[in-house]
Specification:
Layout: E1 10-16, E2 21-25, E3 28-41, E4 53-63, H1 64-73, E5 79-84, E6 87-92, E7 98-103
Length: 104
């Protein structure tokens, strides 16, 4: 069986909702973080009912040359098409409770 790189792939089209924050290590920028707001139309069961649009805020992380491009060319409010993978994780918070995370 051949390895398929596209198994965990996500495509998002939305606007950058927050300031783009660089991730630095040893004084060098190695990545960046921002939130992407993606519109999601609500599906109404009634034909004449008013449709309300909702949105999702997706946390995104970029690394390497992609982060350099995002930091140079994009800013809050700009439309962006993101291709990446979906990662789930968890950590124990300060209060001892387990916190679950999702990131693109």
């Amino acid at each position: 069986m051949a390895y398929s790189r596209g198994v965990n792939q996500i495509f998002l089209l939305g606007r950058i909702a927050t300031d783009i924050n660089p991730i630095e290590k040893d004084g060098k920028t190695i990545g960046c973080r921002f939130n992407l707001v993606v519109d999601r139309p609500a599906v109404s069961k009634e034909k004449d009912a008013a449709r309300q649009q909702t949105c999702d805020y997706i946390p995104c992380v970029c690394w390497s040359w992609v982060s350099n491009h995002v930091l140079e060319k994009y800013s809050k409010g700009m439309m962006i098409f993101a291709i990446g993978s979906w990662q789930s994780g968890s950590y124990t918070g300060r209060d001892g409770k387990k916190v679950y995370t999702n990131t693109c």
